[in-house]
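Tokens for chain A. Residues wanted.
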């Protein structure tokens, strides 16, 4: 009903998502792609053609099949640990989906305010601020080299 509508007849931020924004065509594509495309985007950026275990550095890794495969788990045959593309990165522990992270990186949202970004991605200001802060720390010189390289390519 009408009690769920925000001011000026717009939907609440949790359900509203825009597909076009600051990043132009790339940002729109990043937000509309399927979740597996975003996962593949991060896997390619982080590992390239050959995945490596974030714990031991071994390249003898395979994706798991079955129900574990639906979570996109990898298994390292060096240390026998399970991992995902998020393990050991700024993405670990984040409940924000990879599609949204990709949208923020490709759209170069670090150059803008958290308030403007929150309006585009449909999350609260507080969540977006924490997200951008986490991303800025990871993109710093002491952060993750694969992310700096990825952001340079998107610029």
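Reply:
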């Amino acid at each position: 009903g009408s009690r769920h509508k925000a001011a000026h007849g717009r939907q609440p931020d949790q359900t509203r998502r825009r597909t076009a924004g600051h990043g132009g065509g790339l940002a729109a594509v990043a937000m509309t792609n399927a979740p597996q495309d975003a996962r593949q985007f991060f896997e390619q950026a982080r590992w390239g053609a050959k995945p490596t275990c974030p714990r031991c550095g071994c390249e003898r890794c395979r994706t798991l099949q079955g129900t574990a495969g639906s979570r996109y788990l990898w298994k390292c045959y060096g240390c026998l640990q399970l991992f995902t593309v998020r393990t050991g990165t700024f993405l670990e522990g984040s409940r924000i989906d990879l599609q949204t992270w990709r949208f923020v990186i490709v759209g170069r949202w670090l150059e803008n305010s958290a308030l403007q970004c929150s309006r585009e991605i449909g999350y609260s200001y507080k969540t977006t601020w924490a997200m951008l802060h986490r991303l800025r720390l990871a993109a710093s010189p002491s952060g993750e080299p694969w992310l700096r390289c990825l952001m340079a390519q998107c610029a």
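Confidence is low (pLDDT under 50) at residues 1-30. Helices lie at 24-32, 35-47, 98-106, 114-121, 125-139, 145-154.
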